């Protein structure tokens, strides 16, 4: 069976001659398409496909064309972030609100530290616990500020509410009352963090959602569990000698340990 010769008349070619077994002549036609075609002059044409330079998917990346898109243009305004990309205004505002939450809670804990450090209260373990808690909340606020700058947002600090200076309760005493207040604050903070995560999801910002999940949510529920245990123990020991012992253990066990 004979195969019809392939027409390459429209392609610029170069011809090379050779001898094949059986006495026939073989010429190799090299076209501009890099498709070598071998023609045998006894009427049989044998061709082999060359390298295909087109992309398999049919899509070729043209970076210098794609960076011309408006949303990839580098701004010239002096007060506009160069790094900002796909960062919604709602996300920026929510981060600033959470910064304010963290600073407010830190301020309350700092007031508790000052209260328990008084000479007529002298619960040094509680003073240490609330001082460390205040510093931790401030670090949370600073981490949010760094994230805001990372994404090209602008940090806008809001006013902080003045906390009380007295934490004595006639029935519960000061230690139990302050710890219950701390638990309520931690639950409120957790609620605010969940709202922050929701804003990230609604605005299709997976990086922000991952940031909230990784840096805050797990740590927050662990803090809630720990303070809940402290409250249970304080309710058991009462306001007498047991409270003094609880405070000593809290002082020496550190912020991450369990009091009893």
Automatic annotation (TrEMBL):
<keyword id="KW-0560">Oxidoreductase</keyword>
<keyword id="KW-0408">Iron</keyword>
<protein>
    <recommendedName>
        <fullName>Ferritin</fullName>
        <ecNumber>1.16.3.1</ecNumber>
    </recommendedName>
</protein>
<keyword id="KW-0934">Plastid</keyword>
<feature type="binding site">
    <location>
        <position position="140"/>
    </location>
    <ligand>
        <name>Fe cation</name>
    </ligand>
</feature>
<dbReference type="InterPro" id="IPR009078">
    <property type="entry name" value="Ferritin-like_SF"/>
</dbReference>
<dbReference type="InterPro" id="IPR008331">
    <property type="entry name" value="Ferritin_DPS_dom"/>
</dbReference>
<keyword id="KW-0479">Metal-binding</keyword>
<feature type="binding site">
    <location>
        <position position="137"/>
    </location>
    <ligand>
        <name>Fe cation</name>
    </ligand>
</feature>
<dbReference type="InterPro" id="IPR014034">
    <property type="entry name" value="Ferritin_CS"/>
</dbReference>
<feature type="binding site">
    <location>
        <position position="102"/>
    </location>
    <ligand>
        <name>Fe cation</name>
    </ligand>
</feature>
<dbReference type="GO" id="GO:0004322">
    <property type="term" value="F:ferroxidase activity"/>
</dbReference>
<keyword id="KW-0150">Chloroplast</keyword>
<dbReference type="InterPro" id="IPR001519">
    <property type="entry name" value="Ferritin"/>
</dbReference>
<comment type="similarity">
    <text>Belongs to the ferritin family.</text>
</comment>
<dbReference type="GO" id="GO:0006979">
    <property type="term" value="P:response to oxidative stress"/>
</dbReference>
<dbReference type="GO" id="GO:0008199">
    <property type="term" value="F:ferric iron binding"/>
</dbReference>
<feature type="binding site">
    <location>
        <position position="220"/>
    </location>
    <ligand>
        <name>Fe cation</name>
    </ligand>
</feature>
<dbReference type="GO" id="GO:0006826">
    <property type="term" value="P:iron ion transport"/>
</dbReference>
<comment type="subunit">
    <text>Oligomer of 24 subunits. There are two types of subunits: L (light) chain and H (heavy) chain. The major chain can be light or heavy, depending on the species and tissue type. The functional molecule forms a roughly spherical shell with a diameter of 12 nm and contains a central cavity into which the insoluble mineral iron core is deposited.</text>
</comment>
<dbReference type="GO" id="GO:0008198">
    <property type="term" value="F:ferrous iron binding"/>
</dbReference>
<feature type="domain" description="Ferritin-like diiron">
    <location>
        <begin position="85"/>
        <end position="238"/>
    </location>
</feature>
<feature type="binding site">
    <location>
        <position position="186"/>
    </location>
    <ligand>
        <name>Fe cation</name>
    </ligand>
</feature>
<keyword id="KW-0409">Iron storage</keyword>
<dbReference type="GO" id="GO:0009507">
    <property type="term" value="C:chloroplast"/>
</dbReference>
<keyword id="KW-0809">Transit peptide</keyword>
<comment type="function">
    <text>Stores iron in a soluble, non-toxic, readily available form. Important for iron homeostasis. Iron is taken up in the ferrous form and deposited as ferric hydroxides after oxidation.</text>
</comment>
<dbReference type="Pfam" id="PF00210">
    <property type="entry name" value="Ferritin"/>
</dbReference>
<comment type="function">
    <text>Stores iron in a soluble, non-toxic, readily available form. Important for iron homeostasis. Has ferroxidase activity. Iron is taken up in the ferrous form and deposited as ferric hydroxides after oxidation.</text>
</comment>
<dbReference type="InterPro" id="IPR012347">
    <property type="entry name" value="Ferritin-like"/>
</dbReference>
<dbReference type="InterPro" id="IPR009040">
    <property type="entry name" value="Ferritin-like_diiron"/>
</dbReference>
<dbReference type="GO" id="GO:0006879">
    <property type="term" value="P:intracellular iron ion homeostasis"/>
</dbReference>
